[in-house]
Amino acid sequence: MLNSARIIFLLLVSFLLAACTNIMQPTYTDPFRSFETSFETETDFQNFYKVTPGDYDSTHELSAENVYSGTYAHKAWILKARADNNDGLVYLPHRAYPTVQFQKTSNGIFRTPSLVTIWVNLNISLTDRPAGSIDDWFSFITVSPDASDNWVRTVVINLTPDGYIKLVHVPTQNEQQRIYQADPSNDPSGTLLFPQNEWVRLDLLIDFDPFGGYAKVWQNGILISYAKVNGGNSGLAQAHFGLYAAASIPSGVIYNDDLRIREVADEDEAITLINSTW
Fold first, then answer.
1. CB 105 within 8 A of CB 47
2. Residue 122, exposed/middle/buried by CB under 10 A (0-12, 13-18, 19+)?
3. pLDDT at 10
4. What are phi and psi of 55, to 5 degrees?
5. Residue 267: in which H helix or E strand, if any?
6. What is the 3-state secondary structure of 129-141?
7. 71-100 burial, b if ≥16 CB within 10 A, otherwise e?
8. Is the pTM of this model over 0.85?
9. How far apart are CA 136 and CA 245, in angstroms?
10. Which residues of 6-32 are buried (b: 16+ CB within 10 A; e: fewer)?
11. Using one digit for the tens of pLDDT, what is the confidence trace for 178-216?
12. Can you give the pLDDT at residue 268?
C-alpha cells in the first residue's frame, strides 16, 4: 500500500504534467519527417542546446579515434567523480551531450510514434552503491514531449550495474514498471547483457499517445525492454544523446554515431526499419 507521502508525491507529479502547457500535440499532416546525423559536423546541432564541454566534470567533442561510419563520431567522457549518488540538491549527474530540439525548427515537434536509432560504443564500470544511495547508471537516450527547458516529462534508456539496459520513468515520471524486461530470470545465459567496447545498435520506438502511449527498446535487433508511457500528447519535442551518468562514476567514455529519428506509421513500419541496414 502506498504511504501518504508517496501518494502526495504522485499527485504532485500528475498535476505538474497536466499543467505543463509545453507538452503539445503536433498539428501538421505533412509526409513523415526524419532527422539524421553521422556526427560529421557540429552544424547539425548549431540551433540546439549543447552542454558546454567541461561542465559537470565531463566533456565531449567530435572525434576520429573510434567511428562506426564516416570520419567522426561524438565522443564524451567523464573527467572525475562529482558527488555521491544521493537524492536532493547534492545529486549532480555527469552531463556531456548535444540535444535535438524539434520545437526550435520551422516545422516544430515530431509526431509519434517515432523510431530513434543510434550506434553506441561504451566503456564504463557501474557499481551497486551502499544502502541509502542510488546505484550507478548510464543513460544512452533521453526523449521528451516537453518543449520547455524543464524537460518535465522524460523517457530514458539506462544501463544499470546488472548489465541490462532498461526503460526508465515508465509508465509515469519517477516510476520503473515495465511490461517486459530482459534480466537473469529470462536470460540465464546472459546473451542479452549489454556488450561494452563494441558498436551496438539501439532502437527506441516511442509513442507519446495520451491514451495508449508506450515504448520499446531493441539492442542489436532484439527486444530488451517494453513499457507503457503516460503523460504525453502525441509529440516528440526534444532528445539528447551522449554522456548522462550517475555522479559517483569516476571515469568512462561513450562514442555515438549514425543517429536517426524518424516518424513512423506504426510498430510494423518500425520493425521493418529495425531489420534494415543503418
1. yes
2. buried
3. 44
4. -70, 160
5. helix 267-274
6. CCCCCCCCCEEEE
7. ebbbbbbbeeebebbeeeeeeebbbbbbbb
8. yes
9. 8
10. eeeeeeebeeebeebebbbebeeeeee
11. 999 999 999 999 999 999 999 999 999 999 999 999 999
12. 97
Cα radius of gyration rounded to whole Å, the chain: 18
User: 89 falls in which pLDDT band (50, 70, 90)?
Assistant: low
Q: Strand, coil or helix: what is 272?
A: helix
The Cα–Cα gap between 263 and 236 comes to 10
Q: Is 70 left (phi over 0), alpha (psi -120 to 50) or beta?
A: left
CATH number, residue 31? 2.60.120.200
Sign of CA dihedral 221, 126, 37, 143: positive
- Read off the C-alpha cell for 253: 567514455
Cell of 195: 556488450
Q: Name the one residue in this structure whose C-alpha cell is 564504463.
A: 124
Residues 6+ apart with CB under 8 A from 139: 156, 157, 158, 159, 168, 244, 245
User: pLDDT tens digits, residue range 35-51?
Assistant: 999 999 999 999 999 99
Number of domains in the chain: 1
- For residue 54, the SS3 value is coil
pLDDT digits (tens, 9 = 90+) for 203-252: 999 999 999 999 999 999 999 999 999 999 999 999 999 999 999 999 99
Provide the grid cell at 155: 523517457
Per the structure, the complete domain to which residue 118 belongs is given by 4-274
What letter represents residue 273's amino acid? L
